[in-house]
Amino acid sequence: MNYIELDKKHTWHPYNSLPTKTKILAVKKTFAQTIVLEDGTELVDAMSSWWSAIHGYNNPKLIEALEKQANIMPHVMFGGLTHEPAAVLCEKLAKLTNLPSIFLADSGSVSVEVALKTAILYQKAKGKNVNKFIALENAYHGDTLGCMGVCDPNNSMHSLYGEYLPNNIFTSVENIEQAIIKHHKEVAGVILEPVVQGAGGMKIHKPDYLKRVRELCTKYDIIFIADEIATGFGHTGKMWACEYAEVIPDILTIGKCLTGGMMTLAAMCTTKQISDTISNSEIGVLMHGPTFMGNALACSVANASIDLLLESNWQEKVSNINKIFSEKLSSLEGIEIVKDIRTIGAIGVVELNNPDFAQFIQDECVNQGVWIRPFGKLIYSIVAYTITNEELNKICDAMIYAVKKANIQFKNMEQDR
Ligand SMILES: *Cc1c(COP(=O)(O)O)cnc(C)c1O
């Protein structure tokens, strides 16, 4: 039995049934910006593996770091023990984020869970019993139950879990100031993705609101959590999207491209004031500790990935990517099925009026040699910074071709009506 049949029998895929009802492509290997399928088909990757593989696949520097660490010590428990890769990584992150107290987590969702717990513990340490959060409409902050509690109840999986999920306060970017003023006594903090809401609809906001959120959170002593798991490490054109408003949050969560897409690792970074307040209170400790916390392999790869990024001229590369996305995708303006086209940094988005043609467009892009996975009515691409102009043009051309072809179908259907 080949493994694709085994997969159908036993293996859950993300957000899917078992066996899957949608087509699953079998991948044999990867290199640079290319995914090679079992039948030898090569696809240029427009997704950078859920926005994580910023240096492309099989990067020799990352592989070297992994191999070297594997021979020294792949993993050791982090309770009561420490090691060089983890300590060096925490110092790197402290410098890079201006937030000196780092908790290493094993996935983005876990780092958000730890961020929410930290905010609640901070308030408890200050004598405040609060457990609600303010979040944005359309918010996405991860799939675990605590994270789901701060995902928008109207367009997430809330309805499935009902009472199990906490009730939080959701507001628009326009109304967030009023929401903080109104609810500051009930909440431990505010959680949001700065500037770009990624999985929450690839929405791009003017950064000004972040300044007011920062001011109000300081004024009321509530915790400002910036979830930069998607936006971080240069995706928006700045290292952190918060830099667009020149604000530093109280807690920053990072993940996705922390290891250049090679290993699962995330982090919660916070201020000395918060770590001191919890540590010097009766609570005394941050009660969280994953088995694989501070995994030495992942930390070594993260160190290599950050070095690689900082040594590269990533700003120039991201701005070149943005130029190509903006120029090329603008040719879809005015097309009937297209609602909006927007780009920022290494992110290019074509929003359709509805999701009807998403699967068709995905299939057409694959036929054109490009791996795209639309999200609802969003046809988007977030690419590796190492992508060549030729590869990026191929991605844009495939998106344009597929959307135009879908539009012809749409118009034919309209005529038949
Ligand atoms: C992906 C993502 C998460 C969840 O990270 P996982 O590693 O998938 O658990 C949380 N917040 C944001 C903004 C994300 O994009």
Automatic annotation (TrEMBL):
Annotated residues for binding of substrate: W50, Y140, K256, G289, R373
Main location: cytoplasm
Necessary cofactors: pyridoxal 5'-phosphate
Catalytic activity reported: (8S)-8-amino-7-oxononanoate + S-adenosyl-L-methionine = S-adenosyl-4-methylsulfanyl-2-oxobutanoate + (7R,8S)-7,8-diammoniononanoate
Cited Pfam families: Aminotran_3
GO molecular-function terms, A-Z: adenosylmethionine-8-amino-7-oxononanoate transaminase activity; pyridoxal phosphate binding
Key words of the record: Aminotransferase, Biotin biosynthesis, Cytoplasm, Pyridoxal phosphate, S-adenosyl-L-methionine, Transferase
Modified residues (N6-(pyridoxal phosphate)lysine): K256
Assigned EC number: 2.6.1.62
Pathway: Cofactor biosynthesis; biotin biosynthesis; 7,8-diaminononanoate from 8-amino-7-oxononanoate (SAM route): step 1/1
Top EC class, one word: transferase
Site residues (Participates in the substrate recognition with KAPA and in a stacking interaction with the adenine ring of SAM), renumbered to this chain: Y15
CDD domains, sorted: OAT_like (cd00610)
Protein location: Cytoplasm
GO CC list: cytoplasm
BP GO annotations: biotin biosynthetic process
Chain sites annotated for binding pyridoxal 5'-phosphate: G108, S109, D227, P290, T291
InterPro entries per the UniProt record, alphabetical: Aminotrans_3, Aminotrans_3_PPA_site, BioA, PyrdxlP-dep_Trfase, PyrdxlP-dep_Trfase_major, PyrdxlP-dep_Trfase_small
NCBIfam families noted in UniProt: bioA
Function: Catalyzes the transfer of the alpha-amino group from S-adenosyl-L-methionine (SAM) to 7-keto-8-aminopelargonic acid (KAPA) to form 7,8-diaminopelargonic acid (DAPA). It is the only aminotransferase known to utilize SAM as an amino donor.
Family label: Belongs to the class-III pyridoxal-phosphate-dependent aminotransferase family. BioA subfamily.
Subunit-level organization: Homodimer.
Record-given protein name: Adenosylmethionine-8-amino-7-oxononanoate aminotransferase
Organism: Halarcobacter bivalviorum
Name of encoding gene: bioA
